[in-house]
Amino acid sequence: MNNVLELKGKRFEQASKTSRGGGAAMNSRVIVTSERIFRLIERLNQLKDFWKNENQPFNGILVSVYYNKIVAKTNRISGIFKGEKSNYAIVGAKFNPNKTKHIITYFLDLSDLDESARLLYEAENILRLYFGGKISKEIFDNHKMFDVVDFKKLNLSKSLFRQIIADVSYIEDFDVELEDKRSKESIITIYDTGVEVKRLFKSIGIDILSARVLDNRTVYLDVNQLNLLYEKAPYLVAMATENLSDLLPEDFINEYQGKLVTIPAPGHEPVIGVIDMLFDESVYFREWVEYHKMIDDRLPVSSDDYRHGTAVSSIIVDGPKLNPWLDDGCGRFRVRHFGVASGAQFSSFKIIKFIKSIVEGNKDIKVWNISLGSNQEINDNFISAEGAVLDQIQYENDVIFVVAGTNKPNSDVVKIGSPADSINSMVVNSVTKSGLSTRYSRKGLALAFFAKPDVSYYGGSEEQYIRVCEPTGEAKVAGTSFAAPWIARKLSYLIDILGINRELAKALIIDAARGWNETPGPEEVALYGHGVVPIRIEDIVQTKDDEIKFLVTDVSEKWNTYNYYFPIPLKDDSYPYFARATMCYFPVCDRAQGVDYTNTELNLHFGRIKDNGKLNEINSDKQNLDEDLDGEKNYILEGEAREKFRKWDNVKYISEGVKEKRIPKKSYQNKNWGMEIKTNNRLDPKDGIGLRFGVVVTLKEMYGVNRIEEFVRNCHLNGWLVNKLNIQNRIDIHQKVNEEIEFE
Asked: Based on the domain organization, do 300 and 335 belong to the same domain?
């Protein structure tokens, strides 16, 4: 086996984007006609009348644009509404029921509607006088067709006219979007109207306690408050989820209980945070757990309230001894356990607030396990409040959450529940000992796009249950709750013992689960994520003799973060390898943006460097190419980019796959390979600055030859520092660093 290599010492370089794009681009599937423009003007006038007669508790109006496709940022409105600043007026986004079109909500002034109607009238006038009342994509792209128009004598410039026509080609309709009414106490998120949330609600007769405010857009309302909100201002509601969550059922099989042997005293083992039900301090491993009870002492608790949390922590501390078939080689871990819930039901709103304060007060912990979840299915159009808070915490802090994929409470519930829709978290589903999905596992995807769960692991089934320690002794259990802690152990091992960052740790685990499975189907991803994680830690930090696996990490500062100094060994002036790469990063997210949740896109490009300086990429990705390449324009549709190249996903996997036909790759004048990380932001250009990424690259030699030493030698000659992820060496270092020194 070869050790995984960590490459350091040669920083990625940064380059700004040089091209400004080609200006307005029209939808090729639409012919813009006078009739189409008049229809949109009529809708704007209807909306104007609606808002004039509405006594809204804020200055401004909300308008939803029904686009006729999934639109890229560059294809959204930038002529009408607020012109080029329209993108900054977006307060929400979702898909239509078929998930083929965008519905984007804007916060505007009433005067914006007047100006938009005026611009559309002017554009229609030009369209009728000079283009016979219609423009196709073919005419739009022929700039000579616009030379007949004397724009100096008109009320629109040439560029603005073209932009308005482009806007119209992507717009299907305008409307005021209304969220379905809730009948139970709920966590409500409102559109951002610039008014402080307590003052906004007070103006419509709803007094909210500060304790029920999560942030300036998200509050907890009881049924009476909900009814008043939907009566007075239903258009304010961007999204809503019921507050009370059932603790998901796990299988606790009590047919076997016995006394457990003793455990040595803890030393300097890493600490994993557990946020769960209560913990029983009488169990045999109690010295390994620092317990904090977070619920009110006045609340009634039963013996059952201690079972789940105690069982989860027992896996983290002593899982391999309890389950020898799952001995991962990671040893034991200490636990800091926070009991935040009791009873069959709990307030998810309170738990959200607990989690924020818990992580803030425990900066030393890098890995957190959450095996609580909701019986309710996630929404396709927005991330849950619970999931969004986890994403925010992970963006702002150097931590990672491991979240259980949630279980089926009954056969009618299929999709995963919150907070398993957290994008930045590592979400874990459950498989049987044979590696098949369990009967209780639920399906992703999150926002109909993100691969949730991320991975799968062994969570117990009739084939082989997971043994845990409960307050009354040993028990057999099954559930995603008991799959997640095993992954928390592995992440803590990689981060706290081997010393790699969370981005690389997450990427390593996903890469190990995915392997060379280039194109898993949507159903497979929805159940298994990227795949089943290997049991042994050696199978993650080591690789086969015919493979070279190396890690690189850096931060994005500009549009192109690149490194062209990867000295891949040659054989007869060609490269006899299949290649793949996995990248992870933790972006800032905005729940208010709905389906456009992740604000930053990092796109991974890797391959040989051609003689023209461009990359010959392993996955033929045409995103981020210059607008004009070899005389041909390259356009990738937004829907295609999301589906094929995982655009806006914070996990990137690219691969050419292992094929039976072995054809070594030709080399170019530059014998190195290159990597580029292209950064795009939806809203604020600063969102991607300083964003750290981790990449795992695997090269598989086509003829089974071990070329790792040659690669290491080449790296040294090219100025790289090469660290081998040697398990025993890193453990020794970890123990030395954490030794207590006694002074005489």
From this structure: yes
Distance CA 314, CA 288 (A): 10
Task: Let me know if residue 738 belongs to a domain.
Answer: no
Query: Could you tell me if residue 737 is inside a domain?
Result: no
Range of the structural domain that residue 279 is part of:
251-503
Beta strands in 377-490 (DSSP E): 400-404, 426-431, 455-458, 466-470, 473-478
E strand residue ranges, 52-139? 61-67, 90-95, 102-108, 134-135
In DSSP terms, 447 is beta-bridged to none
How far apart are the C-alpha atoms of 378 and 174, rounded to whole Å? 27
Label residue 448 exposed, middle or buried (CB < 10 Å: 0-12, 13-18, 19+).
middle
Q: Classify residue 571 as exposed, middle or buried by CB count within 10 Å of its CB (0-12, 13-18, 19+).
A: middle
Return d(Cα 488, Cα 315) in angstroms, integer.
10
Residue 645 has pLDDT above 70, yes or no: no
Tokens of 580: 């793949």
**Range from 30-44, 637-651, 662-676 carrying the lowest mean pLDDT:** 637-651
Are 233 and 309 in the same domain? Answer: no
- Residue 419: phi and psi, rounded to 5, are -90, 25
pLDDT at 734: 55
Question: CA-based angle 713:714:718, to the nearest 5?
Answer: 120
Reported as a pLDDT band with limits 50, 70 and 90, residue 296 is confident
Nearest to 569 by CA among 734, 373, 710: 710
In the predicted model, is pLDDT for residue 639 greater than 90? no
pLDDT of residue 636: 46
What would the DSSP string read from start to end of 21-48?
--S----TT--EEHHHHHHHHHHHHHHH
The contacts of residue 193 (CB under 8 Å, 6+ apart) are: 58, 59, 60, 62, 91, 107, 200, 236
What is the number of domains present in the chain?
A: 4
CA angle 158, 164, 168 (to 5 degrees): 145
For residue 523, count CB atoms less than 10 angstroms from its CB and return exposed for 0-12, middle for 13-18, buried for 19 or more.
Answer: exposed
pLDDT in tens, 71-106: 988 899 999 999 999 999 999 999 998 889 999 999
- Separation CA 557–CA 15 (nearest Å): 8
DSSP 443: B
Which range among 5-19, 285-299, 479-493 has the greatest average pLDDT?
A: 479-493
325 burial type by CB count under 10 A (0-12 exposed, 13-18 middle, 19+ buried): exposed
Taking residue 455's Cβ as centre, other Cβ atoms within 10 Å add up to: 27
Buried/exposed 431-443: b ≥16 CB within 10 Å, e otherwise: bbeeeebbebbbb
Res 250: pLDDT:
59
Instruction: Say if CB 460 and CB 371 are below 8 A apart.
Output: no
Q: What is the DSSP letter of 494?
A: I
**How many residues does the structure list for the chain?**
744
Does the N-terminal peptide bond of residue 234 adopt cis geometry, omega within 30 degrees of 0? no
* Cβ count near 129 (within 10 Å): 11
CA terminus-to-terminus distance, the chain: 46
Note whether 476 and 555 are same-domain residues.
no
Specify whether 434 is located in the same domain as 333: yes
